[in-house]
Amino acid sequence: QNLETDKPIAESNLGLRAAIEIPSVSEQEDRRDNVFQMAKWLVHEMESLGIQVKQKDLGKQPGKDIDLPPLIIGRYGSDPSKPTILAYSHYDVQPAALSDGWDYEPFELTQKEDGRLCGRGTSDDKGPLLNWLNMIQAFKKAGQDVPANLVFCFEGMEESGSQGLADALKEESTGEFAKIDSVCITDTAWSTIDQPTLIRGLRGIMFYHINIDGAESDAHSGAFGGSLSEPMTDMVNLMASLVDSRGEILVPGIYDDVLPVSVEERKALGEIKMSKDSLDGGINGKLLHEDQADNLIGRSRKPALSLHGIERASAGKGASTIIPGRILGRFSIRTVANMSIAKTDELIQTHLKARFQQLGSKNELSVQLTGRGDWFFEEVDHWNYQAAIQATEKVWGVTPNITSEGGSIPIALDFKKVLNSNVVLLPVGRADDHVHSENGKSVSFSLIQNY
């Protein structure tokens, strides 16, 4: 059906421009007003299309005297003969500044010569969110009915752990979100840069802090080196004991419960047409494996442990001779199907404490699990996925790749469990969109074609 998508393209970019210019960074408290500003703008846009909108108050941010931005719930259509689909996106974004290394102002929409639309949120997740509204606009212009009832769930704290969303979801499971037939999440990206993808699985995530306390203050290595038990030495030993340079996790028992990759799945992953840019995100990274399937399995179907940094060390310029008295190490593990958060935490805690004891250090160790989200794995034979496959084939002329992805969206599992619904992850962005780094972008025809 011709929905006259040529016209909404220009209008879509204008709407996206206005959205990108609002720096709705949920992580930064001094920009919380901008997140509320974005919510107000979004409500206005939705209501102008005839969507019934409710703003659900989520209360205060845990541990702080600051309001959480509202959960925006919209409803379009109530025909009992049509399926009801819940569409999820988020209107907050990651921090960004020109000084971070951007080639252009991150909160201004810039269109490059190759058609890419650049700016914080173009791909994650303001562009995909606005696609839902542009789709309704296109149906209206064509004088056609949307073939499904739509319930929108747009949050403003996704980039800060979706605080308040899980409780709101439970509360609304017998209210606005009752009688949902399926869920569609558009907060993901294609596995390649040139072929559409549907995502059936996501890894979970567990964040950790390692604290090592040795002294009340820093010391000079010339005066005290060789006489003090140094926290940095302990930290380097502990972090090196977690993972090797080939990406293999060294924690005993960590792979025991991992869902095996079938022969068919490995074959399918090996046949996906992918460039090196698709495999490494276009950052010229050094891939761990020669085989494409091994790289895709490594980043999506196997657990991965990443070391993120060591803090409280001297950050002064030039040669530093400081012995830090206290330091903090950060790492995370991405979990996959069949792994238990409780068991994984027990394995990691046991390993680190045993390794620390082997060091014979006189310092004090504490290991904290500071955040968690479970893995997600969905059935693709459900009509929800089959409809997405057929629609993708019709629009793009190719069968989409069906993959699991390495990122984590804990709310996907919440939707599945609380609403007892099949959840399809329908990406809009592409593998090289740099969604959480500098120069975030999307492609204009990708934004339009998806809806």
TrEMBL record:
Taxonomic placement: Eukaryota, Fungi, Dikarya, Ascomycota, Pezizomycotina
Cited InterPro entries: ArgE/DapE_CS, Cyt/Met_Dipeptidase, Peptidase_M20, Peptidase_M20_dimer
UniProt record similarity statement: Belongs to the peptidase M20A family.
Keywords: Hydrolase, Metal-binding, Protease
Protein name: Peptidase M20 dimerisation domain-containing protein
Keyword Aminoacyl-tRNA synthetase: no
An annotated GO BP: proteolysis
The keyword Transmembrane is assigned to this record: no
MF annotations from Gene Ontology: metal ion binding; peptidase activity
Domain Peptidase M20 dimerisation, residue spans: 201-356
Organism annotation: Clonostachys byssicola
